[in-house]
Specification:
alpha+beta, 34% helix, globular
Length: 172
């Protein structure tokens, strides 16, 4: 399950965001992308998720280009961007459950996700009443609620307190 990109270039508008970029992630490894604002971190993650196409180069899972069968790539990953995509009028439990069931999870996964992210006391509360950090924990719980071998997380610790950051690190 190697995931790699070769000679990647990305252009946004008329600006070259990055070029000749390579990455290689082996099973069980973590790739941490750092850089200043506007340096292309989110652009690279969107390329890795198959949401956009590189100007040049390619990204592969094993030996298959991710864009050859986009549905297969989509099924193997979880992408968490800047927006949480939570339904504000339904409960924490309902948000996690609907995500899980849409992505091949089951009731056991949902219960495990709620416990893993310390959401037990919040499970019946509509998401509109949660703090930003609590919403981020619900968003991250979806990683546990439906299994995928590839997690692409864009600034996942934003709005989290130190205990929640430590919890996320242990899950990773």
């Amino acid at each position: 399950m190697q995931f790699f990109g070769e000679n990647l270039s990305c252009i946004r508008g008329e600006r070259v965001v990055f070029s000749r970029l390579n990455f290689h992630v082996k099973p069980g490894n973590t790739l941490i992308i750092t850089g200043s604002n506007g340096s292309g971190k989110t652009s690279l993650l969107r390329l890795m998720a198959g949401l956009t196409t590189p100007e040049s180069g390619y990204i592969s899972w094993e030996d298959d280009p991710i864009l050859a069968i986009p549905e297969d790539h989509s099924d193997r990953l979880h992408y968490i961007g800047h927006l949480n995509a939570l339904k504000s009028t339904i409960s924490v439990l309902e948000n996690i459950k609907s995500w899980s069931y849409l992505h091949g999870g089951n009731a056991k996964n949902v219960i495990n996700a709620i416990k893993s992210l310390n959401l037990d006391r919040l499970k019946d509360i509509p998401c509109r009443y949660l703090s930003s950090g609590q919403k981020q924990r619900v968003t991250l719980a979806r990683l546990i609620a439906s299994e995928a071998p590839l997690w692409l997380l864009d600034e996942p610790t934003n709005t989290l307190d130190q205990n929640s950051i430590d919890l996320l690190h242990s899950l990773i």
